[in-house]
């Protein structure tokens, strides 16, 4: 469920474009006004604002925002102004080209949590802007993690609710026999996790526990490691409960010294209009603190105001 709140009735896109233009004029940007407008408009309305701004002032609003805003607020607002496929492609590019190191967790999150249709759109946008997504993954990822990512973006999965009980049982039996470090076993694990439907993986986790009294995620962790383990775990968690997965991502991003703002921005901006309400519930249930309070304590200024406007609900 979305946490985005919009005024009723919404101002016209033309009125919003004019008010944004006024916020940019004069000495300094009225950042509060920009946040108050853009953080409370849905995707369709934001798209119409972009069109109206171009028509009225002959400028790309995104370029104006890039000039007028700064820091993490700028990153968050610019990502917010893109459509979902553009947004994912941009975030993927940033994670792949992350300095000094390839952001394996970010790339895993953006690929292994998306549907086949979403991945096709992301690949089209990515190749139109930069290069082949497949080529960039080949150049920057490594080992079994690379093979998992490449298989995931190139496989068409069934996404309906029906499952094959015999195949579920067969997969559970195979996983029980997997040996750590076996390249042939790891190849079959990649095939299994990239070709099976989400419904199948949910049934597989249940069947594995029934058959062997052990959680499937723990079994996978016993025989895999590093980014490969994280990728398999992300696929399995998102098959069953995406909100719980994203709650954990947010926890990791804001735990300990410093905040991983790139991850916070990515989750808040990409999930605010989808399932942020469920993510908030899972976060409170698991970590005993409201997500709104944690973001408030870990961020500041207009950046904080923008994030809280998106998730407050």
Can you describe what's shown?
- The protein contains 20 helices and no strands.
- The chain has 313 residues and is an all-alpha fold.
Give the key terms.
about 325 residues; mainly alpha
* N-to-C CA distance: 10 Å
Helix/strand/pairing class, anyone? mainly alpha
Low-confidence stretches: none
Order of helices and strands: HHHHHHHHHHHHHHHHHHHH
**Basic shape:** elongated
Count of runs of 4 or more consecutive helical residues: 20
Quantity of strands, as a count: 0
Radius of gyration: 21 Å
In short:
This protein is mainly alpha-helical and 313 residues long.
Topology:
Layout: H1 13-24, H2 31-38, H3 43-57, H4 61-68, H5 71-80, H6 84-96, H7 104-112, H8 116-129, H9 133-140, H10 143-154, H11 165-177, H12 183-195, H13 198-212, H14 216-223, H15 226-240, H16 242-253, H17 261-271, H18 276-287, H19 291-298, H20 301-311
GO molecular function: calcium ion binding; calcium-dependent phospholipid binding; phosphatidylserine binding
Protein name: Annexin
InterPro entries: Annexin, Annexin_repeat, Annexin_repeat_CS, Annexin_sf
